[in-house]
Amino acid sequence: MTVENPNPTELAPAIKVHNLNYAFQDGSAGLVNLNLDLPPGSRTLLIGANGAGKTTLLRLLSGKRLAPHGSINIGGVDPFSTGLEGVTYLGLEWVLNPVVRTDIDVPSLLASVGGNYYTERRDQLMEILDIDPTWRLHTVSDGERRRVQLAMGLIRPWRILLLDEITVDLDLLSRSNFLQFLKNETEIRPCTIVYATHILDNLAQWPTHLVHMSLGKVKEFGPIEKIKLDEVGPTDNSQLGQLVLRWLKEDLAERGPRRGLRSEGKTYESFDGKGGYGNEKTV
Length: 283
Ligand SMILES: Nc1ncnc2c1ncn2[C@@H]1O[C@H](COP(=O)(O)OP(=O)(O)OP(=O)(O)O)[C@@H](O)[C@H]1O
Fold this sequence. Notes:
This protein has helices spanning 8-11, 54-61, 79-83, 92-95, 106-112, 119-128, 142-155, 172-188, 224-231, 237-255, and strands at residues 15-23, 29-38, 43-47, 72-74, 87-90, 160-164, 192-196, 209-214, 217-223, 281-282. The chain has two domains: 14-86 and 161-256, 3-Layer(aba) Sandwich (Rossmann fold); 90-157, no CATH class. It has 283 residues and is of the alpha/beta class. 34% of the residues lie in helices and 20% in strands. It is built from ten helices and ten strands. The strands form two sheets. It has a six-stranded mixed sheet with strand order 5-6-7-3-8-9, sandwiched between helices. Strands 1, 2, 4 and 10 form a four-stranded antiparallel sheet that branches. The chain is globular and about 50 Å long. Adenosine-5'-triphosphate binds next to helix 2. Residues 24-26, 28, 30, 48, 50-56, 262-264, 266-267, 277-278, 280 line the site of adenosine-5'-triphosphate.
């Protein structure tokens, strides 16, 4: 059976989280009674202070960690038990992959992740991210290396993209081109994006949805028009920044001084120096 004029948005996976509770190995609460409903083809910004639980959530969505049965549903399946096809999760472990610091050329690296198969995407990404094919990775700048990494991570067409702030080294133009590329992807093919970031420059027109997290909880989520209209009116970049600043100040006031409460810094300590998490368990 053929589908006439398929709408890419409708065919994309939805992300549903229902009463998700998650505890780390030491017993501390990672996520608390979390609920989300992100529609097919959406582009969601995950906003929250350091330690709010964004990475924890993204890792559970990616299926890298086991969530309680029935609490996460992506495109109709449980990502951990079913093993999701087409999920790309780009976070710290991926950034720290040592291969991008070795004496290797760009075409070989991109070929190692399917570049010779997805040639059109490869060439498009190289153009958008302004990558020079003659670079050798041990002699490029951090930002240039990051651009090659992004191309590597995005060549294979994903259905779900989970981004844990990985654009910090990009210059303004590269980041803007990169975000435009992602937006375009959700408009031309069935895919859904969740992006955790602290960098709000040029983002006001990018998200379809916002999720505000604090202390392992979702404080609010919804379509950006709704949140913006409710809270600050039609929004440009600086207003989105003002909204987030207000959220973070409120979160800090609610939380109070740390004094051992959900301390930062545990996140990557126990992972054999590679970055990543410890042996969490579910609750
Ligand atoms: N393995 C672990 N054991 C215990 N606590 C942990 C572990 N990993 C992370 N945490 C804690 O869980 C909380 C949420 O961490 P997470 O990395 O999800 O935050 P985040 O919102 O991504 O922060 P950031 O913006 O700094 O990246 C933090 O307080 C962190 O210290």
